[in-house]
Amino acid sequence: MGIEERITNASPLELTVINYEILLANIDKALAAEAKSDKASYALDKARECIAALYMTLDMDIEFSQDLEGIYLFVNSVLIRADFERDKKVRSEELNHARNICAELLSSWQALLDDPDLEERLIAEAGGPQVYTGLTYGPDGQLTEYEDFDPDGGYKI
Asked: Given its phi and psi angles, is residue 143 left (phi above 0), alpha (psi -120 to 50 degrees) or beta?
C-alpha cells in the first residue's frame, strides 16, 4: 500500500503514527546529509513541520497533551540547534537525541494502534466518528491543489 492510500484510509491514531514515521525519516535524512547542506536543512524543515502538525493535534484540556507539548517544543528546539550546528559530532548527538525521543513516542503510539479494541472504544466514547471533507478554491474560483516537492523523493501529501 502506498503512502497516499495509507493516509487516505487512516484513522486519527494511524495518522499520528504516520506523522511520526515521516518525522523519523526526515531526521534520518538529516543525519545522512552533510551538515549545513541544503539537503540537511530541507530534511530538518520537514521534520519541524511534522512536529508542528503533531503539536496542532493536542487537546490542552487533557493532561497528557500538556506533557506532549513540552516534549514537542523540546524536540523542535533540538532540531533547530542541530540545523545551525557546525560541529559534526555535536550535530549528530543532537539529532540522535531527538530521534531517540521520537522513536520512543512512535513505539508508544504503535502500541496503542496494536490494541484491537482501542479505536472502537474511543469512537464510542466520543459519540461516533466525525468526518470533515472539503476542497480549497483560490480567489479566482479555481480549485487549488498543493503538492510538496521533495528533491530526494519521499512523501507527497
From this structure: beta
Q: What span, in angstroms and rounded, lies between the C-alpha atoms of 22 and 154?
A: 9
Could you identify the residue written with the cell 506532549?
68
The pTM of the full predicted model, rounded to 2 decimals, is 0.73
CB atoms inside a 10 Å sphere around CB 63: 8
CATH number for domain 3-126, candidates 3.40.30.10, 3.40.640.10, 3.30.70.20, 1.20.120.340: 1.20.120.340
Cβ–Cβ under 8 Å, residues 49 and 102: no
Reading the chain (157 residues) residue by residue, the pLDDT tens digits are: 777 888 888 888 899 999 999 999 999 999 999 888 899 999 999 999 999 999 999 999 888 899 999 999 999 999 999 999 888 899 999 999 999 999 999 999 999 888 878 767 766 766 665 555 555 666 666 656 554 545 555 444 4
Angle value at C-alpha 133, between 23 and 10, nearest 5 degrees = 40
DSSP code for 34: P
What share of residues in the chain are helix, strand, coil (percent, to 5)? 65, 0, 35
Q: Return the amino acid letter for 86.
A: R
